[in-house]
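FORM 7B: Structural annotation worksheet

SECTION A. Query
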Amino acid sequence: MISSICLSTIAHSTEDISKVKGAILNLLPLSLRNYRTISEQEAQGHHGNSIWLLTLDLREKKPAAEISDYLLRSLPVADRLHLTVQLDLYFDGRSAIFLRLDKQSAFLGSLRLSNGDDVIRVKIGFLGTRGERSEVLRLFGLC
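SECTION B. Predicted structure
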């Protein structure tokens, strides 16, 4: 059972923070885009530049499940296949799956996995499994 979802990213000083927030909101089904606000925390980057840490953290089971289902259904078939085959790269072995989605693609309205630096990090937490690969695949509709 999906128990939580957390979406987070960094908005650099060269980026329009409202556009970065838009990229996060594009990861949500339309019905949930106004459900919660994105928290903002100002910080300093490695070189002393201003950055904003943006986070949307949902700990309610129903909206978290809706969002994770939407995310997984919205990924291209090749990315879903990659998740299925390489699950160990994304699953912590206990209670969470960690995804990195391309921030620019999300802004443009499409989702895709990324290994780059400019990403939206997604942590999907779940309960009720024993950390078995087959259970996780079933839970996320990847089998």
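SECTION C. Observations
The first helix runs from residue 17 to 25. The domain at 2-139 is CATH 3.30.1440.10 (50s Ribosomal Protein L5; Chain: A,).

SECTION D. Sign-off
Analyst initials: ____
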